[in-house]
Specification:
- It comes from Amycolatopsis sulphurea.
- It holds the Pfam family WelO5.
- The chain is an alpha+beta fold.
- The chain has a single domain (7-272), classed as q2cbj1_9rhob like domain (Jelly Rolls), CATH 2.60.120.620.
- Helices cover 19% and strands 32% of the residues.
- The longest helix is centred in the middle third of the chain and has 17 residues, at 98-114.
- Bound molecules: 2-oxoglutaric acid and fe (ii) ion.
- The site of 2-oxoglutaric acid (AKG) has 10 residues, from strand 10, strand 17 and strand 19.
- Residues 157, 162, 181, 183, 195, 240, 244, 246, 256, 258 line the site of 2-oxoglutaric acid.
Length: 273
């Protein structure tokens, strides 16, 4: 049944047969999250999650924060980041123990930046109201992971996907069966910086077309896709297991605050970065 609280845009990805639409809602209902999980939605847009004024304030505060970079050997074009992510601590023997000290420090830095007005907590609270089940940060042996990263992309990104269940099966206490990427945009460029999501997940044969940390465009050629031009203060959820890429900025800064969210078989939503 069509959810009346969402606005459906059928013009983008081919309409009814493709079922890869974008919905927009200030508070996405459970039904939209389920459709995104089922693969019959491409993205959920949440306009005005943060006011333009709040985005400007956070940008001013971020100007005094120390950003670091992903290893340019792994992620190129370079990406500046504030916050921490599990993928930085992968090793052949499992998650490196240093993750926990880093996560604790990241939580302190995050608290110092946002005080009582933490946008990750705000979306967690909002989801808890619409999702009929528990919403929490992901845990490993009962210990809470950190969820939050602010990233500045300038040169865009390669075509890639993010799927922790493939990189790191059984890491979390409640493993996600679906993975979403979430970003709330604090600054958007005047041009460029669009997010394109392809209706295509990884296939083993794609390994012949790896291009550094990404994949060659031919893996998604001929597949339906949507292209989103994020607005300031807008939140966007998409299935990060679908191949996606970000266009290079031609003018202006592109800064987004994000995390991943998993849907688990226990009806729990879990967040991490
Ligand atoms: O910044 C974006 O729009 C998406 C970034 C991305 O690749 C992700 O969140 O997985
Ligand atoms: Fe991604």
């Amino acid at each position: 049944m069509q959810d009346v609280s969402s606005t459906l845009d059928r013009s983008v990805a081919g309409g009814d047969e493709v079922m890869f639409d974008i919905v927009s809602s200030p508070a996405p209902p459970r039904s939209d999250i389920l459709r995104l999980a089922a693969g019959t939605l491409a993205a959920i847009r949440i306009p005005g999650m943060l006011s333009p004024q709040r985005c400007t304030e956070v940008m001013v505060e971020l100007a005094d924060c120390e950003f670091d970079h992903y290893d340019p050997a792994q992620v190129f074009p370079p990406v500046a980041k504030f916050g921490t992510g599990i993928s930085d601590f992968y090793s052949a023997d499992g998650l490196r123990q240093e993750y926990w000290a880093e996560a604790e420090q990241a939580a302190k830095n995050w608290q110092a930046l946002f005080n009582d007005d933490d946008p990750v907590q705000a979306i967690l609270d909002q989801l808890a109201r619409s999702w009929d089940g528990p919403v929490s940060r992901a845990t490993i042996d009962g210990q809470e992971c950190f969820a939050g990263v602010v990233r500045q992309l300038t040169g865009g990104s390669r075509i890639h996907y993010d799927e922790i269940a493939r990189d790191y099966p059984y890491l979390f206490d409640t493993p996600p069966i679906v993975q979403f990427g979430f970003n709330c945009y604090l600054a958007v460029p005047e041009s460029g910086g669009e997010l394109t999501v392809h209706r295509r997940r990884w296939l083993p044969r794609d390994e012949d077309h790896r291009d550094g940390y990404g994949w060659a465009p031919r893996v998604v050629a001929d597949e339906p896709h949507v292209t989103l031009h994020p607005e300031v203060g807008e939140g966007i959820f998409f299935d990060s297991r679908n191949y996606h890429r970000i266009g290079a900025n031609t003018a202006g800064r592109r800064v987004a605050l994000g995390f991943f969210m998993g849907v688990t078989a226990e009806n729990r939503l879990v967040l991490w970065s």
